[in-house]
Design brief:
Elements lengths: L10 E7 L13 H20 L3 E11 L8 E11 L3 E10 L8 E12 L11 H4 L4
Antiparallel strand pairs: 1-3, 2-5, 3-4, 4-5
Bound molecules: coenzyme A.
Coenzyme A binds next to strand 2 and strand 5.
C-alpha cells in the first residue's frame, strides 16, 4: 500500500536557520523563537495582502509537534483562512526541511489573527478591492 505524502499548505513566507543562541539548556530550539518566526511570516503575508501595516491581535491556536535542532532549516507556510472588516486570520505551518535526502517534516501548526492598522496604530478597514484579491 502506498503511504500518503503530506505536504505544506500555503505560501512560503519565511525561511531561516536555527542558531545556537536560539536553544534552551537541552539543545532544543526555544518554542518562543519558533513562534516569533511564525509571527513574522504571518505579518509578511498579512501586510502584503492588506497593502499596509498589520499588528498581531491573537494567537488562537498553537501546537508544537516535534523539536527543532540547531542547524535545522525551517520554512514557514502561511494561508489566509478568513478576512473580516479589519482582521485577517492566517493558518501557519512550520516545516523542517534541513535534510534534503528525506521528506520535510511538519514541526508546528498555528492559527494567528492580524489586524490591519494605519500609521498611528489604529485599526483600518480592509478595502473590498483588496478583499477580492484573496486567492
Ligand atoms: C490591533 C488593535 C489596534 C485593534 O484594536 P481593537 O479596538 O482592540 O480592535 P477590535 O476589538 O475591534 O478587533 C479588531 C478585529 O480583530 C478581531 N479580534 C479581536 N480579538 C480577537 C481574538 N482574540 N481572536 C481573533 N480575532 C480577534 C475582531 O473580531 C475584529 O475583527 P473584524 O474587524 O474583522 O470584525 C489593538 O488591539 C492593538 O493595538 N493591540 C496590540 C497589537 C500589538 O501590539 N501586537 C503585537 C503584540 S506584542
Amino acid at each position: 500500500m502506498q503511504s500518503e505524502i503530506i505536504k505544506p499548505e500555503g505560501t512560503l513566507s519565511l525561511q531561516t536557520i536555527a542558531m545556537p543562541a536560539d536553544t534552551n539548556w537541552s539543545g532544543d530550539v526555544f518554542g518562543g523563537w519558533i513562534v516569533s518566526q511564525m509571527d513574522l511570516a504571518g505579518a509578511i503575508h498579512a501586510e502584503r495582502f492588506s497593502k499596509g501595516r498589520c499588528a498581531t491581535i491573537a494567537i488562537n491556536q498553537m501546537s508544537f509537534l516535534v523539536p527543532v535542532k540547531v542547524g535545522d532549516v525551517i520554512s514557514c507556510y502561511t494561508k489566509i483562512l478568513k478576512v473580516g472588516n479589519t482582521s485577517i486570520q492566517i493558518a501557519i505551518e512550520v516545516w523542517n526541511s534541513h535534510d534534503e535526502s528525506r521528506p520535510a517534516k511538519q514541526v508546528t501548526a498555528g492559527l494567528f489573527t492580524f489586524v490591519a492598522v494605519d500609521q498611528s496604530g489604529q485599526k483600518r478597514r480592509i478595502s473590498d478591492e483588496v478583499r477580492e484579491n484573496l486567492t
